[in-house]
Amino acid sequence: MLKNWLKIAFINYRKNWLSTLINILGLSVGLCVFLLIFIHWQDEKSYEQWIPDKENIYFIENGNAAFGIMSSSSYPEIFVSKEKFSEIEDATVYNDWGKEKLSVGSNSAYVSGSATIDSFFSFFPFEKVAGNLQNALSDNGKIVISDKTARLLFGDDYLNAVGKSVKSDSKVKEYVVTAIYKLPETNTVFKPDFMYRNPYMEESKDKWTNFNYKGFFRLKPGTDIKALENKLSKQMQQQDEIISKKWGYTLDKKNPATVYLTPISKMKLDAKSEGINKGDKKSIMILLGLSVLILALSGINLINLKTAQASQRAKEVGVRKVVGSSKSALILQFLLETFMICLAAYVVAFAMVELLLPSYNKFLSKDIKLIDPNLFVYTGLLLIVFSLISGLIPALYLSNFKPINTLKGNFARSKNGIWLRNGILTLQLVISSFFIICSLIIHTQVSYMMNKDLGFKGDQTIQINFKKTNWENDFNVNKYRRLKNEVARIPGVTDITGSVNSIGTGSANMSIVKLASDTTKTIQTMLGGIDENFLKFYKVKFLSGRDLDWKKASDTISGAVVNETFAGKLGYNPKTALGKDFFTGWDGKKKYKILGVVKDINYAGVEQAVMPIVYFNYDRNWIKNNLQNLQIKISKDDINGTLERIKEFWITKAEPGYPYDFEFVDKQFAKTYEKFQKQQTLFTTLNIVVLLIALLGLFALSSLLIEQKLKDVAIKKTLGADEKTLIWDLTKRFLLICATAVFISIPFGYYAMNEWLKDFAYRIDMPVWPYVLSLILLLILTFVVVSFKAYRATKINLVKYLKYE
C-alpha cells in the first residue's frame, strides 16, 4: 500500500512539476527565514544559562521620576539591604570599566576590565586556572586575570603568574596577581579580561543617591519576589524623603522610587532598563512573529495549490472509493504527499541557512552556530505539525469527494472548493499587503530620522577619546588642554573643542535642577560642561540671549546657557527664561543664571526625547574629571592627510602604547539609529520574500485555474471575443480578490505600525500613501502575473479544445 501511495505521489509531482517546485521553493524560503530568526532568539535566550543556582540570582534595577528606570544601584541599597532583609543571602557588584593597559616589563595588553568584589565569584563561578578565587580581591592591591590576558603578559610561563606584579594606569598603579580564571565558553555578558576591587566602594557606603553599581542579589529559595521588591522600594522612598528635605525640593508622589528584581537568566532580554548589553527583545519578537506569517504564507500556498489540483484527482478519488478505499486511508495518503514536500523543503531550508549564516552573523555582530541539538528537535516537531496543518485541509477536501459526482463527468466544471481557494488566496494577499504597508512606513520613519534637523552641524568633525591617567587629583582638564594645544598645531586642523556629553552617546552625567523663585519646580537635566567655543563649533542656533563670555568671571562661574527643552520644562519660553536663576544638584546652593537659550541638540538619538541640558564652563567643579575627549574639525581640502597626521601624533606623543581610535561625529550619531536601519533592512528583505512567495503561489494557482477554463476561452474566442476581453475575463476575479485583501489588511497594518511608532519621541504622522501604494502595487503585480498566463491562454489551439464538444 505504501509503495502504491509513493508511486501515485511521484506521478502527481511529475505531472504538476511547476506547482511542486513552487511549493518546495516557497516552503524552503519561508522555513529559512523562520529558522534564521528563531536561532537568533534562541541564542539571546541562552545567555547566563551556565550559572549554577541562576533561578535564585537577581539583577537590581531602580526607577524614579527623575531618572526613569536605571540599570545601576547605590552601594548602600545593595549592601544595607543584604543585612536588613533576611530573604537576601548574598550580594555582589559588577562594573564594566572598559579597556585598560596592563603591563609586565616590555609586555603589555590593552584589554577590557571590570571592578567588583570577592563575592562575585560565588555568584559567577569562573573556572579556576591558577591561584585561589576565594579572597582573591580582598584589598585594592590585588587583581585576577583571564588566561588569555595572562598569556599576553607572561607568555608561556603564564601559569606561574600568581604572586607577580602587574602595572596599570588606573588609580592603583601596581597590582599583585592572585588568581587566573577562564571565561565561560557559552553566551554571557560577563567577559572581563581582568578584575580588580572597586576602589571607590569605601567612599560610597553612605551615598544612597550615587547610582554607580550594577548590583545582584542571591535570594533564598522560595522568596516572594514581589514582596521583596515592595520592601526595597519603600526603603528607597524613605531615603528619597530624607534627601529631598535636605536639598529642599519636592518629590513626585505619583512616581515614587521603585526597585525591580530581574532573574539573571532573563536579564539579557527582559531587563526593564538598558541592563548589561541588553538584547532587543521587542524587535526579535516582531521579526519572529513576521517569520511565522511568512511560514503561514508558504503553507497557504501549499493548501491553495493542493485544493486547486483537486479537480485533476477527483476521478482518482472516486475510483479508489469505489474499489473499497476508506476515507481515513485517503487522508493518510494525501498527508504523506504533503509531508514529503515539506521534508524536501526542510532539507533545502537548512542548506540555505548554512549558506546565509556567515552573512547573518556579520549583520547581527554575532557568532551563531548550528550546533544546538534542541534546534533540530524543535524544528523537526515544527515540520510534523506544519505538515499536518497544511496537509489536513486539502486531504479532507479531497477525501470528501462523492464517487457518483466524480465519475459521471468532468469535475473541472464543478464549483466545489471555489470559496475555499478564494478565501485562502485572500488571506495570502492580506499578508502580502500588510508587509508592503509596514515596510513603506518603516522606511519613511527611518528616512525621517536620518534627515531630521539635529540642532548641530558635525560635518568634517572627529572625536578622539583620551585615557584617564591623572588619578592623583582625578581631573582630566590638564591633559585636555595640553592635547588641545598640540593638536591645534597640526596642519589641516581648523578648530578644536571638548564637552562632557558626546553627541551620539547620550548622557554621561545627570542631576536635579530647581528654580530659585519656586523651589517646587524641579527637573532632571544633563550636565553640559563645555569648552569656550563648543556652541559656535557646532553652529548651534541661539533662540534668545547670548553665549557665555569666557572673559567675564560671572559668566564662567555662574552663567549658563540652556536648551529650549530646559526652558519649557520650567514653564518658560526662550525669551521669558532669560535672567532666571536656578539651583543645581552638582554645585550645592550656588545659583546659576540663564544667559541664553539655544535650539535643542539630539545627543542620544532621534527616537528619544531631547533631555534638558545646562551648558556651563567645564573648569569650575568636579565635572572637569569627566572631560575625556577632543572634538576636532578638519579642513575639507586634505581630510585623509590630516587624519594621518593626527594619528601619527597620537600614537607617538599623545598616548603611545594605546590603540588609536576615532569616530566622525556624524557617523557616531548615526549609530543611534543603526538598530532602526537594521529593522528597515530586515523588513524590506522579508517584504521581498513575502512578495516572492505570494506571487509564485499566485502564478501557480492562476495557471491551474485558467487551465480549467481553456474550453470556455475556446468557445468565447470562436464566438468572436478579442484578446483584451478574454484577458480581462480571466483576470478580473483575481483583481477583485486583491483589492478586497488590501482593504482587509489596512486596519492590521495601521495598528501594528502605530504600536511600532510609539517607540519614537519624534515620529512621522501616520501617512495615507503607503496604504494607497500597497493597493496599486498589488493590483499591478497581480495583473501582470495573471495576465501573462491569461495571454498564453488566448493562444490555444481551438480544435484541441472544441473537438469533443
From TrEMBL:
Subcellular location per the Swiss-Prot or TrEMBL entry: Cell membrane
Domain ABC3 transporter permease C-terminal: 290-402, 687-797
Alphabetical keyword list: Cell membrane, Membrane, Transmembrane, Transmembrane helix
Boundaries of every MacB-like periplasmic core domain copy: 20-233, 429-638
Entry keyword annotation includes Transmembrane: yes
Membrane spanning residue stretches: 21-41, 284-305, 330-355, 375-398, 419-442, 682-706, 734-753, 768-791
Topology within the bilayer: Multi-pass membrane protein
InterPro entries in the cross-refs: ABC3_permease_C, MacB_PCD, Macrolide_Exporter_MacB
Database matches in PANTHER family: ABC-TYPE MACROLIDE FAMILY EXPORT SYSTEM PERMEASE COMPONENT 2, MEMBRANE COMPONENT OF TRANSPORTER-RELATED
Protein name, UniProt field: ABC transport system permease protein
Organism: Chryseobacterium camelliae
Lineage: Bacteria, Pseudomonadati, Bacteroidota, Flavobacteriia, Flavobacteriales
